[in-house]
Amino acid sequence: MDTTTTGTQSLAHPTANANANADADAASGSETSKKPMAIITIGMAGAGKSTFVQRINSYLHSLSDSQGAAAEPGGGGSSETNEEEAEGQKTHRPPYVLNLDPAVTRLPYEANIDIRDTVNYAEVMKQYNLGPNGGIMTALNLFTTKFDQVLDLVEKRADEVDYVILDTPGQIEIFTWSASGAIITDAIASSFPTVVAYIIDTPRTNAPATFMSNMLYACSILYKTKLPFILVFNKTDVQPHEFALEWMEDFEAFQEALATHGTARDAEGEPTYMNSLMNSMSLVLDEFYKGIKAVGVSSFTGAGIPEFFKAVEASREEYTTLYLPELARAKQRREAKVREAKEESMRRLMRDLEVDRKKPGFVERDKWDPNYHDDEGEDGEMEDEEDTHVNVDEDELMDPREAFGGQYIDLTRAQRSAGGADMNWPRPV
Ligand SMILES: Nc1nc2c(ncn2[C@@H]2O[C@H](COP(=O)(O)OP(=O)(O)OP(=O)(O)O)[C@@H](O)[C@H]2O)c(=O)[nH]1
């Protein structure tokens, strides 16, 4: 496994060849004809999502600029041209960026679509009498009602961009556990190859307990979205992320860290409840680590960003081989469920009819009554106790043959004239 500070770590991933395939693909230069890859950035408040989006945005801009400069006669290019060469002469175009955080006061990048242009978060709070989190949630819900239009806009630009980047609200649960977050994620993921970039504040995750809770959260998002997933250890300029990679790879190393951590034993020297819980949880997470990629980046210095994009390209492969078939299976399951529900309601209807027909007098009553109109009194009112017929003024009714241009078949009259006996129905022209 690659153990460079910022290297992409494909932790025994099921599609282990994906990186190699992606590179080979990149070398072929066929990306331009592909659909853009959507990157959904999710992370705890303050993990550095917006700074990360700003960094990858400026990275892609600089690649496309340097490409333009190199294409011009005498164009010198920049130091990042080397990175580009390393990526296999891939063509780069600036990304399409969506900001979904209605409460952010200052964005370090320019978003192509900004939720704040559509919904005024402060106004939502005032009008609906909500607190900050409720305000963000409602603003996102309101925005989601228009998301089909947003998707149209993105799809219109799909031929011109390689990446669609989504920045999500600071309060992670507002996006990950809300209906609107799920709708947006599903809508994007069913239109474009999609990857979730889970941003982690590395310096704040260096204690085993916080590391574990962060990983559990990441795990829950992975199993909820079922999308390709990249763990992005951010702020590596402050704290290198090797410790995290070691804990993820080597179960015993994590156990050791747990044992030596301050909260491992209580006053009597016994392992604390928390410690035992984390020991068993780490076994569960071992499975989770096998299926995801991890990369260390610094949104400040830009270190690790090329490796992040390699992981993204590898995820494109994963999306096609794992997520798309699963999406198709989910669709089939949904359709089968609807079919089954329809058949069940039809079966129930037939059963009810069967029961009704067994009731005394039902068959006699369930007959066509040719004297249907004879029930009316002189004033046109129904004489039956159960007045079940709709009373309409026939003078006001339009002649149906006029209304339907001769295509109308008056079944009542046809039936009346046939006296309820077998008859040949007139066929529409
Ligand atoms: N040292 C260092 N600081 C960083 C890095 N990335 C982000 N930060 C800082 O972390 C803080 C939070 O960054 P944001 O980008 O606002 O984080 P966020 O996740 O978007 O925050 P919310 O939207 O409030 O959840 C800011 O002070 C950033 O300057 C990094 O790579 N290195």
Automatic annotation (TrEMBL):
Lineage top rank: taxon: Eukaryota
One Gene Ontology term, aspect cellular component: nucleus
Record keyword Manganese present: no
Compositionally biased region (Basic and acidic residues): 364-374, 388-400
EC number of this enzyme: 3.6.5.-
Keywords carried by this UniProt record: Cytoplasm, GTP-binding, Hydrolase, Nucleotide-binding, Phosphoprotein
Biased composition range(s): Low complexity: 16-27
Annotated spans, Disordered: 1-32, 64-96, 364-400
MF term (GO), any: GTP binding
Keyword tRNA-binding: no
Compositional bias segments (type: Acidic residues): 375-387
Localization in the cell: Cytoplasm; Nucleus
Extent of Polar residues compositional bias: 1-12
Role played: Small GTPase required for proper nuclear import of RNA polymerase II (RNAPII). May act at an RNAP assembly step prior to nuclear import.
Family designation: Belongs to the GPN-loop GTPase family.
Complexes and interactors: Binds to RNA polymerase II.
Protein name according to UniProt: GPN-loop GTPase
Species the sequence originates in: Coprinopsis marcescibilis
